[in-house]
Write a structure and sequence with these properties.
142 residues, alpha/beta, Arc Repressor Mutant, subunit A, 3-stranded parallel sheet, two-stranded antiparallel ribbon, 5 strands, 31% helix, 11% strand
């Protein structure tokens, strides 16, 4: 098997699933972005903390990742101005920008220097700050 040093596992982060370099970005998310037509350049533009090698190694690890899906965001959020959001690493910072433009208070874990925050601590942060948690982690904190 090819050496995949950028693929990491931590039971406290994203339910122990395969992540990129210990960040809260799952390999499954990258595979789905590619499967839905995004190029490596587009992915790196949407997620500026990722590198081409991260995407390459995620593709090499693809056999393990058939269960997650990419979901498009809903336009209804702009009609509910003033909501507070905490965005996980698997959510593009561009979503944060769109939420802010819609009048919401949105923060991203990367902006808070919390890109390796375990699930329980992230949930506590969201609760403490009265924020809605947006994540692709389908088995969050399980």
């Amino acid at each position: 098997m090819v050496r995949l040093e950028r693929i990491t596992f931590d039971p406290a982060i994203m339910g122990g699933r395969a992540c990129i370099r210990g960040m809260r970005v799952t390999v499954a998310l990258l595979i789905n972005l590619v499967a839905n037509g995004m190029t490596s350049a587009e992915i790196m533009d949407a997620y500026p903390y990722l590198e081409r090698e991260d995407i390459r190694q995620a593709l090499q690890y693809a056999a393990w990742l058939a269960k997650e899906q990419v979901h498009r965001t809903s336009p209804f959020l702009s009609s509910c101005a003033g909501m507070r959001f905490l965005l996980d690493m698997g959510i593009s910072p561009k979503i944060m920008i769109a939420l802010r433009q819609g009048g919401h208070d949105a923060i991203h874990l990367l902006d808070q220097q919390l890109h390796k925050l375990p699930d329980p601590a992230m949930l506590e942060k969201a609760r403490h700050e009265n924020r809605i948690l947006l994540t692709h982690d389908l088995d969050f904190a399980s």
